[in-house]
Design brief:
homodimer, alpha/beta, 6-phosphogluconate dehydrogenase C-terminal fold, 13% strand, globular
Amino acid sequence: MRVGIIGLGLMGGSLALALRKYKLVSKIYGCFRSVKQTKEVLDLNLVDEVLNIDELKEKSDLIVLAISVDKIIEYIPKLLDININTTIVDLGSTKKSILDNIPLKIRSNFIGAHPMVGTEKSGPSAAIENFYENSVVVLCDTNMNSSYHLNRVKNIFSTIQMKIIDMNSSQHDIHACFMSHLPHAISFALANTVMNHEDPISIVQLAAGGFKDMSRVAKSSPSMWIDIFKQNRDNLLESLDLFKNQMNFIQTLLEDEKYDELENWMKKANTLHKIL
Amino acid sequence: MRVGIIGLGLMGGSLALALRKYKLVSKIYGCFRSVKQTKEVLDLNLVDEVLNIDELKEKSDLIVLAISVDKIIEYIPKLLDININTTIVDLGSTKKSILDNIPLKIRSNFIGAHPMVGTEKSGPSAAIENFYENSVVVLCDTNMNSSYHLNRVKNIFSTIQMKIIDMNSSQHDIHACFMSHLPHAISFALANTVMNHEDPISIVQLAAGGFKDMSRVAKSSPSMWIDIFKQNRDNLLESLDLFKNQMNFIQTLLEDEKYDELENWMKKANTLHKIL
């Protein structure tokens, strides 16, 4: 199989490495952007050749869109003339806007996938060979896909050791909001709160595991995350409201010195260890 | 040196293991609580002998208080008759209330220390030999200590590979609030938000690194953390206000679809990677 990957950062680059590891590909193509970027992805052995988009479309059996979620939607018009046997898969963190924007002409070819895995790092040098192993990938609205294309993508994800879950895109966006987008928003807010108040030396000296873990995803790419927040705005606003209710609750209990109730609220949060 | 440790959980138990590793002790004593607890700390080799408090006071050159911050204050009256050469050190996460509660009689013997390290785990089985290595320990209001006691404690912390920082207890409590207590409060709130909204199966299936990291400290002991929140209430309320301002900011920008401003706010949070 020949695979063309648009976007060779953490997600796309790691997929390239996994496809090679599991011998799923004869060729991997990247799309030309700049001389420097081309050199980097060739040096890192993420691709065999860098082509222009027309060559990539012609030569690829599978095209992977591993760019930010707004750019995926912008890219779609360039893919309308693909061959009937060419499969497209996107790896975006939102699914409803993307899938609602796929024209019927290529809808059966286009698989919407969200690998539930990430780090705060980005760019080709962030790519890791075993990044996807033992992780979950959510496939959305697959009733719109032909079994030819769907099976090709499912085969790839299961071969690289991922667990596949089917979900409709609206449900996906709600779950992804609570399990990923809301935590990212909170991490950005915590990082800004602390950096506004604390000097850099104190941050370095006094940061222990708790703060380090909770502020880690605030180091994620803003240009990637602004598009996710934009596309999942309604769900994110709703989840922010629910989270603020919890913050108001702790604040009120502290103000009123209702420590027994506060401890019960913490015990409830504590039951998470039975799940995760 | 003979060391008595009151509280042999993550903090006290790990200190026992570090004291043995660096050959700083001839004997480690624990304080009797129940037959089961006594057996556990002996089986884990955290102590050589379990004594009652009077025996422990008589035999120990150094007494370590590694219990929850309210219990430290409750314990102090039992230590008023220590020998003039006996040192006491507490490892609590708050410092001002504790140090303000030490009677003058033993004030020069009593070192207030906060090791800036932790995990969500608790109890004797959570103890780890190299837990403290390469971490920071804050010593507070040390102008109240005699150099005899202070040097004994500093020597221990530096031998077990900790970096020592001096700070006054009011400043400590503010820094510890922003760098640790606020992040814990947020984690409890996030865990409750997600568990109220999401079913356990979705949480297990869809939790990636971001949520796992951000909810980890919500698994911390509520009985330990309620005392910290109580003792650092005023600072915590102030930090919660500042954090809520940040949450209101993101919410307003999302509502008004001011994405450029929102991205700039995220870029500001993103600069954390230059510090940590």
